[in-house]
Amino acid sequence: MTDLLVIAASNGENLKLAERFASAAEAQGQRAAVLDLTAVDLPLFTPRAMAAGTPPALAALQEQLQAARRWVICAPEYNGSIPPVLTSAIAWLSVQGDDFRALFNGRPIAIATHSGGGGHTLMAALRLQLAHLGAHVVGRQLVSTSANPAKDASILDLVSRLQQLAVPQN
Questions:
Q1: Residue 1 and residue 130: Cα distance in Å, rounded?
Q2: Can you give the pTM of this predicted structure?
Q3: Contact partners, residue 75, CB within 8 Å, separation at least 6
Q4: Quick one: the chain helix, strand, coil %, rounded to 5?
Q5: Which residues face 155 on adjacent strands?
Q6: Could you report the per-residue pLDDT of 59-68, keeping only the tens digit for each?
């Protein structure tokens, strides 16, 4: 079981940020992994795509998410909101099984961004969606830009805060 899964919703600066979170967790003795959502072969979620059948990659994605005790989501701001790759993945996960919320209910999650647009509206939208799904989103978030890069101390603080949160029993 992975202690911390760091989910990157881009393969640019947010993937680099995700790798920094994983390294910080490993430095604290945790088992950490990075999941690059852009490398997961999921089509854009639409009713037509759903009617065509479940994408083969979805089961492995769900299993990887379920096997991690805590998550960090590193995502860029897209037009003031959540990037399509993350929204689509959550939509695909939400049509699986009888209780998709079990994947999110009580799950400790920290949110972070490296964004050209500031990232604050992404953080609000992501926090709202994750809370709606039942996740326990850490109160502090990390917002970074090229002019204000993420500080190691802030990353370590978020990893520590996640460790303090109880994990739901599966």
A1: 22
A2: 0.96
A3: 8, 9, 10, 14, 82, 83, 86, 111, 112, 113, 122, 126
A4: 45, 20, 40
A5: none
A6: 999 999 999 9
* pLDDT for res 170: 57
Domains of the chain by start residue, with CATH: 7-163 (3.40.50.360)
CA distances from 4 to 72, 79, 135 (A): 7, 28, 15
131 three-class SS: helix
The C-alpha atoms of residue 66 and residue 1 are separated, in whole angstroms, by 9
Summarised one tens digit per residue, pLDDT across range 77-108 is 999 999 999 999 999 998 887 777 889 999 99
Question: What gap in Å lies between CA 107 and CA 165, rounded to an integer?
Answer: 9
Distance, CA of 118 to chain centre: 18
Tell me the two tokens of residue 69.
Answer: 């005790």
| Type of residue found at 127 | R
Q: 62: Cβ–Cβ under 8 A, 6 or more apart, which residues?
A: 93, 96, 103
pLDDT at 29 over 60: yes
Whether residue 110 has pLDDT greater than 90: yes
